[in-house]
């Protein structure tokens, strides 16, 4: 069963209040004070668990690996850790209550090769003090209101919007507005895995991303709602070299996406950059709202907060970036278990059920959100027949230079067809998630795309 933590009863009461009045009010100052006592500054439970398998949070990891150079290969601060135990198809039942449905399905589909190595839990999440300060303010000023494409936050800025969440959609917005720095550059590959075990590179690109929501000198009054902006330029494969895409994600659900196609020599705005529409950033392999586990408007679904549970999830995944070759990371049907680090953490569980009269390839989804970082670390999606269709995962990388434990590589396994996709693989790249000074906003415009996307 899902463990109902100390917030659970309050969450149910607040959900009823929200449905009655159309908006969920911020928490009172007395409750927000928990962020300075029993909760971490971003809203996780500060204490460890009863049996000591989850330690107390003590400030996160803020010390860079010796020899690290900004913009270079990222080292593993926990490289000396050894697995506490391993889970295989043979002993799966012993740990089933701490695994997602999708993870258990992978053991059944690939019993001879899929394995989970569980390492000591490291509560590495951290952020600058000004993000903690804004998170405290958000707890008392942010609320959920009805937007044109779903439920949206109002009054939040520069920190986790709902560090003491009461509803599923608040937890979702904590993920969408999670701390991952102000601006970043990275080189990456996207690789499709076919059902017969072949690997096909669909994108070899360079990306610039910016989080205007986290401009340090901003405020709720100055913020225009564009919380995530992204520009991706393809260097390959040859058939796609020179293509580019710019996307601007806005709180109100008005996603604006432009693509540059070399054959046409022009930039075009996508008419429906939303939801289960295939995204050009992955050559159409993933949908828009598969990106980084969920992206874009939430209005097609009813969101339910299930509760919080101790679960074994991918975490502190710097080890994933250590191999020099992509082929050492991805096996025939899944990521090489030798390079994947799993840990026991407290996880918020939320569900999305398709509203009556709405359309989506996945009418039901379940998302698993880390309490410390607010990264969605795992997710499962069911198809229209009720079959468990797709299980998704996202790695988190310790970045003391931000500081943060930020989302990086992500992907999915199609449990029905046997295909898979892994995106943002940086192993063969000299630049692995370089923290950048703030970009000019013009970078994330059609004109900025024209200047870069040429052949």
TrEMBL record:
InterPro entries: DUF1329. CDD domains: LolA_like (cd16329). Residues 1-25 form the signal peptide. Keywords: Signal. This is DUF1329 domain-containing protein. The lineage of its organism: Bacteria, Pseudomonadati, Pseudomonadota, Betaproteobacteria, Burkholderiales.
């Amino acid at each position: 069963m899902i463990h109902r933590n100390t917030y659970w009863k309050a969450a149910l009461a607040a959900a009823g209040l929200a449905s009655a009045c159309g908006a969920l009010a911020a928490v009172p100052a007395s409750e927000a004070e928990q962020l300075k006592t029993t909760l971490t500054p971003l809203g996780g439970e500060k204490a460890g668990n009863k049996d000591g398998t989850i330690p107390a949070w003590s400030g996160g990891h803020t010390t860079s690996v010796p020899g690290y150079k900004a913009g270079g290969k990222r080292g593993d601060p926990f490289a000396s850790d050894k697995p506490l135990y391993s889970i295989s198809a043979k002993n799966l039942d012993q740990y089933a209550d701490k695994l997602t449905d999708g993870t258990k399905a992978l053991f059944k589909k690939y019993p001879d090769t899929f394995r989970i190595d569980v390492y000591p839990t490291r509560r590495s999440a951290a952020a600058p003090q000004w993000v903690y300060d804004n998170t405290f303010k958000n707890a008392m000023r942010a609320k959920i209101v009805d937007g044109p494409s779903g439920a949206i936050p109002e009054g939040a800025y520069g920190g986790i919007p709902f560090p003491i969440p009461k509803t599923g959609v608040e937890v979702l917005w904590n993920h969408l507005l999670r701390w991952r720095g102000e601006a970043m550059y990275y080189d990456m590959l996207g690789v499709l895995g076919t059902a017969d075990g072949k690997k096909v590179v669909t994108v070899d690109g360079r990306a610039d991303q910016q989080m205007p929501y986290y401009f340090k000198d901003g405020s709720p009054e100055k913020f225009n709602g564009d919380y995530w902006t992204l520009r991706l330029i393809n260097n390959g494969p040859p058939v796609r070299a020179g293509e580019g895409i710019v996307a601007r994600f806005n709180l109100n659900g008005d996603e604006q996406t432009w693509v540059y196609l070399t054959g046409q020599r022009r930039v075009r705005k996508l008419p429906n950059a939303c939801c289960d529409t295939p995204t050009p950033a992955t050559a159409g392999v993933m949908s828009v709202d598969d990106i980084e586990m969920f992206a874009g408007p939430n209005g097609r679904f009813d969101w339910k907060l299930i509760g919080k549970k101790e679960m074994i999830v991918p975490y502190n995944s710097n080890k994933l970036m250590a191999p020099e070759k992509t082929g050492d990371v991805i096996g025939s049907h899944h990521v090489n278990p030798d390079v994947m680090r799993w840990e026991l953490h407290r996880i918020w569980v939320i569900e999305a059920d398709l509203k009556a009269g709405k359309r989506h390839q996945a009418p039901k989804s379940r998302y698993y959100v880390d309490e410390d970082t607010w990264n969605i670390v795992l997710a499962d999606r069911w198809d229209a027949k009720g079959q468990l269709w797709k299980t998704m995962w996202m790695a988190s990388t310790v970045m003391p230079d931000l500081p943060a434990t930020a989302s990086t590589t992500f992907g999915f396994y199609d449990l029905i067809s046997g295909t898979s996709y892994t995106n943002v693989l940086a192993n063969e790249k000299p630049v692995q998630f370089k923290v950048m000074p703030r970009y000019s906003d013009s970078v994330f415009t059609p004109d900025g795309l024209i200047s870069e996307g040429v052949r």
